[in-house]
Amino acid sequence: MIELKTTDTSFLRREFVRLSRLGRGGAFILFRENVQIDFTREIVDLCLKNHAYDAQCEGERIEYAMQFVRALCAVPRKKVISAVKAHLKNDEISSSWDWNFFQLCMICAKISNEFDDSLGDILRKRYAECNDETVYRAFPEALGCVCLSSGMFRVHKNWWEDDFLFYDVPKMSASDVRRRLEIVAQTDENVRAYLDTVFATEKIKAENESKREQTEPKSVFEKVKKLLAESKRVSPLLAKKLSEDELLYFASAFQKEKTQKNRIGYLRLFSPITKIPYPLDFHDLLFALSPLKNSLYNEFLVDSLSFFSAPEIRALAIRALESDEFSDFYFILLKKNYREGDGKKIAQKLRSIKNVNRFHDATICARKIYEENPTADCLEPLRLIYEKTPCALCRSFVAELLEKSRVLPDEIKAELPFDSEMLFSKEIGDEK
Hints:
The protein is mostly helical and 432 residues long.
């Protein structure tokens, strides 16, 4: 983050909002260096909402928000806690999974432990009012921090229940949670019913797996043939079990196949997902490219071509970088065809992308290129990504790549300890 030498309170407040919603550590540095500004309203917002670009992939923003709560002086902290408590009492609970409500519950659980245990009582009360799946998923995880020993688990009114909760109690292994619940279940009928549902689900899953094994082809080769014939995806685990001769068979089948839809099935076998390169001449793939440059079919072909290094492939990658006619997925062709100086071309292309989702896709390609090619030449494009990406996960990967290439700027290094992704990773590590 560029050092902000200004006394403009409105600007600093806007910058805090921008950085904090991205989960940037720079927001905490700005907060810490401007104690004269009251950021309580913005901190309450961080407690109530998970502003992640993709909350499911990036993870929680709970510790990120809590670092601000902990750093506040007593009076503003009490103001934040009072506002959060009011929302916990009054916010409507969604009928579907809600990352913001989950954030609120977990924040309240931590505040209950650290500052005001009355929030734990409100958590229990609101939990007791509700039966829907959102609350069932959100509250037990929050309550795991507050009152595991009290057996505060309610029965989800459904025939299916996974054992995910066993893995979500802080500082306890899944087997320890299971044993603890077995003890509580001896005197608590709700916990007993919950465990009975989990065990019944495990039995159903085992029976379904047994039925699949009886009806599916026995050999891996026949399984893959059947999946491709039915236009279904072949899992990487299954694909890796194919022999060299079997892979050659499917590569030949790709050559003979006439329709793009069916060819995509074969291309999925030879992709970065399976990590299996196309076993025949790469020219087969190059010549198969459609005139419709940015089609889904071409995207799969480009993925398969990304295993190869050749002048023709590099030429295609550079042409795509220098032209607006090509989609961003062509970036990936530089993974095996990178040359010093390409960083400037990649940065120029990134600057031209205005759509946030397109930028994210291009970011993933750039990450893969520099994972394969650690070089100081990465500084310009990766620093640009660090500043511009909406994704905390990509930002942490980019910081690692900059450090690996020994060009991590000091101002980025200074804010990393307070970054949402770093704090989330540390919390997960501590729990393990």
